[in-house]
Amino acid sequence: MGAVDDTRPAVTRSARRAVSVASAVSLAVLLAGHVGSPNVYFTGMAGPYSVDVAIRPPLVVPGIADVYVKVGDSTVSRVVIRPVFWRAGLKGAPPGDDARPVAGRRGEFTGQLWLMASGAYGVHITVAGAAGSGAVMVPVASVATGELALSPFLKWLLGTLGVLLVAGAITAIHGAVGESQVPPGEQVAPDRRRRARMAAMVAAPALAVLLFGGAKWWDAEARRYVRTLYRPVSTRTGVTVDSMVPMLTQTVLDSGWRVGNVAAIMPDHGKLAHMFVIRADSPVVFAHLHPTMPDPSTLVTPLPPLPAGRYRVFTDLVHETGFERTLVDSFMLREAIGAGATPRLTEDEAWSSDVVNKVGVFPQAGGHDSTFFIKWDGPESVAARQQDVLRFIVSNRRGREITVEPYLGMSAHAVVERDDGQVFMHLHPNGTSSMASQLAFTLRDRGDTTTDGRLRLATDPMNQLRTPTLVKYLAFPYAFPSPGRYRVWVQIRTDGIVHTSGFEVHVNAPDSARVRR
Q: Can you give the pLDDT at residue 360?
């Protein structure tokens, strides 16, 4: 665990056999960069005001997103929320809507926004109060991920109304040809009654044809909509030996991606991609890697020493549109990759395995007194959709804060995965959104683009943490989306080494949930 020297020792014969892999189809239902966890959480500053934001994107597009804003200042009188599509920018966005104050909860506001197109949106939040006004942009992926089903009662009601409508139409046609043609008080002649019945008999199959045609049109529209649902990008993952080092390769198979119909990738925290390799049956075997991209559809990275087993691969990417995406795949490692195959990893890459130190306890230079701990500080009862439960204490043996160095521009990183692989999330202390996505909206709004629409990216454009800080507590705004057994990894850097601490979290009903480390 930690940084690894740039060495390339020989790979043993057993290590060569260890890289026999079996590709697998994607394992999880995705929502852009959120796997099985669609809601967006953000903590930060809107000018002089601290804000906590939660956004629930719509299931269908066009659809309505629910927005919740909590402001840490009781003098705030107004919160305006505004949907900004990546291509339109602030100048082309519709006017904002005032969020409503939550009754009985000072400083809390809620509202709804229509997201009309698929792609990256930025929810622009403006806060006004005694200290003036401030704004912040929270990226949201707008993609259709499901269909809205009719309830049984609504189906019955619409069916009944349809039958009544058809019966009424036939009755109206019968009356129009028959009784309506006769002066009031006179009897309808037999020949006119025959014509009325004939008109009704002709109208019935004609209406049936119209209904059949309407049903076929509706089914065609439904099938067209299903084809627009967001689906995982197909990839193929395998391990080979390159220059005596086990190399993991993830190749995008999607034809649209390969011919350049997908926007270019932009760096996030200084890396083109963040790849997480997690053993499916272990809460501690975990690697955070940063693959290179020799071409736009291929990601390649050396592998650290890993035990044999089945692994899941989650690769986070950010497009220049601000759209976040996670590539999901798996592979089987038949035999362990031992320390004799130590790869060429960078100081920003780290892993933990069954053979590392006890989870959450890390010795530092300076002996016994320099050991520090990362401890779970969340509630004993963790319920699905309960916010603000990912909290940790970081302290030395005397219970004091420790000095944490910047790790990829942040004080800490966290990864959440449900043990069946159906939920995955890469978190930062400011929430679920990537800094690169926020940067993409900022650059486009101020016109930092080329003539062909590419962003003008500086060498290190993001406002990242650059100096060590004293840390006693870590918090990650998040809510587990569903019950189950989860694994949570927390990563910080001290003394130039990235430390990874793994936890198991059981998310159930509040009266039976429990946390184990």
A: 47
